[in-house]
Amino acid sequence: MFGLEKSAGQQKPGRSGGLPKMASVGDFNVLSSSIPATKVELSVSCRNLLDRDTFSKSDPICVLYTQAIGNKEWREFGRTEVIDNTLNPDFVRKFIMDYFFEERENLRFDFYDVDSKSPNLSKHDFLGQMFCTLGEIVGSQGSRLEKSIVGIPGKKCGTVIVTAEELGCCRDSVLMQFCANKLDKKDFFGKSDPFLVFLRSNEDGSFTICHKTEVVKNTLNPVWQAFKISVRALCNGDYDRTIKVEVYDWDRDGSHDFIGEFTTSYRELSRGQSQFNVYEVINPKKKGKKKKYINSGTVTLLSFLIETEVSFLDYIKGGTQINFTVAIDFTASNGNPSQPTSLHYMNPYQLNAYGMALKAVGEIIQDYDSDKMFPALGFGARLPPDGRVSHEFALNGNPQNPYCHGIDGVMEAYYRSLKSVQLYGPTNFAPVINHVARYAASVKDGSQYFVLLIITDGVISDMAQTKESIVNASKFPMSIIIVGVGPAEFDAMEELDGDVVRISSRGKFAERDIVQFVPFRDYIDRSGNHVLSMARLAKDVLAEIPEQFLSYMRVRGIKPLPAPPPYTPPIHVLQTQI
């Protein structure tokens, strides 16, 4: 097969059957706090590709590249198969990628007409390319992105359709219950105090612990409580991977006595309660020593129930829109915008901290908003013509329609405002929070979710009112991100974040945690690489959004809408594949 034999380190041996390397989630440890990315499968189809062959149609292949964050270098991720003699290929080979909501993953799809067996792409005819982000594909209606292929001046290169499908094994959980019979007696005065330890095997033959049951005291015939575990934690989504179960007798001093062990797999367990799921517990040492040794008891699976967790992507695919609003602090403590010391300094050569925070967060969120129209507000300034102080004004100067087109439109309105308003005070958050909460309160059916980004230099004047606004807003489909810029002490902001102590007002606690605060100075890259600073900032402030989003949907009992019907390509001539 062209391009797979020697494609520069893209091989991954073993179960992948020699396909090019697919992105892998490192070894997921169920006991660690990091949540693994979900995996999405990308399918690629093209329509009306350029015809580069004289006597027949092109023989296309698609090559996917991903871009490193720091140096912007493109790296080959993988290749599809070649399809002979067609301008409308539906490639069979998929690209499997890790997906993080909070990261911007730039993608490039290159298309070639294959003329020989050589894996070297320069030996083949270039048919064009398409650039997008993974978020753009996932955020499109039905997670299906259709875009023109570009790259050959003066030629129509056709279109590409990329569809993203979340892989199911990432989010299945199983509810299992076990009991045991006639386990070995290990305690001198009583019976044993047994518990089970589950370990999944790794590629290198080692084992990783993924679950421990509770201890059942003083019995050789324990029944353990049912427990829930994700399929990814149990077997990394590989149904035939060995799962080892060890049986111990609990001792107070921690020197638990080994009773025995057995092995199974997800596929075996999934048969449920049956004769196949009664396991002999074997102690290898005893077995080696005693000729008449049969076993150290048996463990039986009592029940096995698969539960599919609904994910953030299910809602996005079902059409839920994320509405992004930005609110910028125009108080005098930021300093005069014409002075280089000001946090609002309009440097013609680089973004100021406000611009960087806005772009970092906005460029990711905009992929999930179909109309790309964002309300942009300011607070703490005196407005022309009469100099009245406002804590909720439209950056574009139009209070009836504060929407700006795209993040670039928001940036433009921000720079225009700096030239027309007078920085003043005080720093009041409550009006902009209430502004977004009014919209969020009117859409409680799960079709929309609101994210408010507040960028501020810090010292808040209306703490009591802001707390009340947040407690009130926690009932609505919204999240608040606060980015603190400049050198101020941000102690008050930490209190609003609510990660340590849930925020309350007048004795009422917030229904859920909806605020994420970060100080921008923690992300300044010492080498001056602003791209890295912005990527790190976006990663941290957006990481909590999917869980906050899901917590709202769960509390309200809102299920994702079904995705629109999948795209069915028009039927055309049967293709041969080499």
TrEMBL record:
<comment type="function">
    <text>Probable calcium-dependent phospholipid-binding protein that may play a role in calcium-mediated intracellular processes.</text>
</comment>
<keyword id="KW-0597">Phosphoprotein</keyword>
<dbReference type="GO" id="GO:0005544">
    <property type="term" value="F:calcium-dependent phospholipid binding"/>
</dbReference>
<keyword id="KW-0479">Metal-binding</keyword>
<feature type="domain" description="C2">
    <location>
        <begin position="20"/>
        <end position="147"/>
    </location>
</feature>
<dbReference type="InterPro" id="IPR002035">
    <property type="entry name" value="VWF_A"/>
</dbReference>
<dbReference type="InterPro" id="IPR000008">
    <property type="entry name" value="C2_dom"/>
</dbReference>
<dbReference type="InterPro" id="IPR045052">
    <property type="entry name" value="Copine"/>
</dbReference>
<dbReference type="InterPro" id="IPR036465">
    <property type="entry name" value="vWFA_dom_sf"/>
</dbReference>
<dbReference type="InterPro" id="IPR037768">
    <property type="entry name" value="C2B_Copine"/>
</dbReference>
<dbReference type="InterPro" id="IPR010734">
    <property type="entry name" value="Copine_C"/>
</dbReference>
<dbReference type="GO" id="GO:0005886">
    <property type="term" value="C:plasma membrane"/>
</dbReference>
<feature type="domain" description="C2">
    <location>
        <begin position="156"/>
        <end position="279"/>
    </location>
</feature>
<dbReference type="InterPro" id="IPR035892">
    <property type="entry name" value="C2_domain_sf"/>
</dbReference>
<keyword id="KW-0677">Repeat</keyword>
<feature type="domain" description="VWFA">
    <location>
        <begin position="323"/>
        <end position="524"/>
    </location>
</feature>
<comment type="similarity">
    <text>Belongs to the copine family.</text>
</comment>
<protein>
    <recommendedName>
        <fullName>Copine-8</fullName>
    </recommendedName>
</protein>
<dbReference type="GO" id="GO:0071277">
    <property type="term" value="P:cellular response to calcium ion"/>
</dbReference>
<keyword id="KW-0106">Calcium</keyword>
<dbReference type="GO" id="GO:0046872">
    <property type="term" value="F:metal ion binding"/>
</dbReference>
<dbReference type="Pfam" id="PF07002">
    <property type="entry name" value="Copine"/>
</dbReference>
<dbReference type="Pfam" id="PF00168">
    <property type="entry name" value="C2"/>
</dbReference>
<feature type="region of interest" description="Disordered">
    <location>
        <begin position="1"/>
        <end position="20"/>
    </location>
</feature>
